[in-house]
């Protein structure tokens, strides 16, 4: 598969024109979409204005990922720690999936995108679950990009749940301790069946994982940008892909 990158606006990418061919596209890209609040603050707007604008950035990256033949896009939308925020902000965030789907589900269908989630889905408000479940059902037979929202997701919780389930399964002889290896363990995580992310992007200049995919990111390439999430664009995504293409992944080898 060889595709041409359309255009480059940044100097860094202009300097690497010989790499225009898009081979070595990451199979799975994960993004920590951060900086909505700061985007709004810079404009003297309430934080929720940043979240609202962030929804459009989600669609921009979905289009780009789909265009470049990325197979899985995992987007960190709400963490288990985000419940610490003011109720009014949480209420707003919990309405966003419905708003996003109301506007974009037809286009997602047209682009053959399948929607899934990772995280503690049951603990979400009923109206959020309803909107997201509808989209999951509607898109379940699509075989294009897998758009995977991390919603009420926390990696430590995920790992702890896996351990508990494994102990239960050992107790009732469903599995044996000896048969438990890394692959078998992975299948107890929300990301069961998915390959690990190849590329992790975090926006807004923060350089931490914030409890995101701790197990799955063991050998992932990280890319950080100061761009605030609502300003994320296809160009920034292409810049990240391009940087990924320059990386040498050694997995401990030489
Ligand atoms: C990311 O933006 C969205 C969520 C975490 C839900 P933030 O709301 O964290 O924005 P900042 O980090 O305060 O700027
Ligand atoms: C991480 O961003 C969670 C999401 C993007 C959903 P936060 O803004 O919550 O992370 P911290 O608090 O800065 O680590
Ligand atoms: Mg933040």
TrEMBL record:
Please provide an example of a Pfam family that matches this protein in its UniProt record: Prenyltransf
- Name the UniProt key words of this record, in alphabetical order: Magnesium, Metal-binding, Transferase
- Record PROSITE patterns: UPP_SYNTHASE
Give the record's cofactor note, including how many are bound.
Binds 2 magnesium ions per subunit.
Q: Which residues bind substrate?
A: 35-39, 47, 51, 79-81, 83, 85, 202, 208-210
EC code(s) of this entry? 2.5.1.-
Which residues participate directly in catalysis? 34, 82 (proton acceptor)
Q: Name one GO biological process term.
A: polyprenol biosynthetic process
GO terms (molecular function) for this protein are: ditrans,polycis-undecaprenyl-diphosphate synthase [(2E,6E)-farnesyl-diphosphate specific] activity; magnesium ion binding; manganese ion binding
Q: Which InterPro entries does its entry note?
A: UPP_synth-like, UPP_synth-like_CS, UPP_synth-like_sf
The UniProt annotation places Mg(2+) binding at: 34, 221
Q: What GO terms fall under cellular component here?
A: cytosol
Q: Transferase among the record's keywords?
A: yes
| Cofactor (UniProt) | Mg(2+)
CDD domains cross-referenced by the UniProt entry: Cis_IPPS (cd00475)
Query: Which family does the UniProt entry place this protein in?
Result: Belongs to the UPP synthase family.
* Function statement: Catalyzes the condensation of isopentenyl diphosphate (IPP) with allylic pyrophosphates generating different type of terpenoids.
Please report the name of this protein according to its UniProt entry: Isoprenyl transferase
């Amino acid at each position: 598969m060889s595709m041409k990158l359309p255009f480059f606006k940044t100097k860094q990418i202009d300097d690497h024109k010989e790499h225009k061919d898009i081979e070595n596209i990451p199979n799975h890209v994960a993004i920590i979409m951060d900086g909505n609040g700061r985007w709004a603050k810079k404009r003297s707007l309430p934080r929720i204005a940043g979240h609202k604008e962030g929804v459009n950035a989600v669609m921009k990256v979905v289009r780009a990922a789909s265009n470049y033949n990325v197979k899985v896009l995992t987007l960190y939308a709400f963490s288990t720690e985000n419940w610490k925020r003011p109720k009014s902000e949480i209420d707003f965030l919990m309405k966003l999936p419905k708003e996003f789907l109301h506007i974009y589900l037809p286009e997602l269908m047209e682009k053959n995108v399948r929607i899934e989630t990772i995280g503690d889905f049951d603990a979400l408000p009923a109206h959020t679950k309803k909107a997201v479940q509808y989209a999951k059902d509607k898109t379940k037979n699509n075989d294009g990009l897998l758009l995977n929202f991390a919603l009420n997701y926390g990696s430590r919780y995920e790992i702890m749940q896996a351990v508990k389930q494994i102990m239960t399964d050992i107790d009732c002889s469903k599995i044996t301790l000896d048969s438990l290896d890394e692959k078998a363990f992975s299948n107890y995580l929300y990301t069961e069946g998915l390959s690990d992310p190849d590329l992790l992007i975090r926006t807004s200049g923060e350089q931490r994982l914030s409890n995101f995919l701790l197990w799955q990111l063991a050998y992932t390439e990280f890319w950080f940008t100061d761009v605030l999430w609502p300003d994320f664009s296809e160009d920034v995504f292409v810049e990240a892909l391009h940087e990924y293409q320059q990386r040498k992944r050694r997995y401990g080898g030489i």
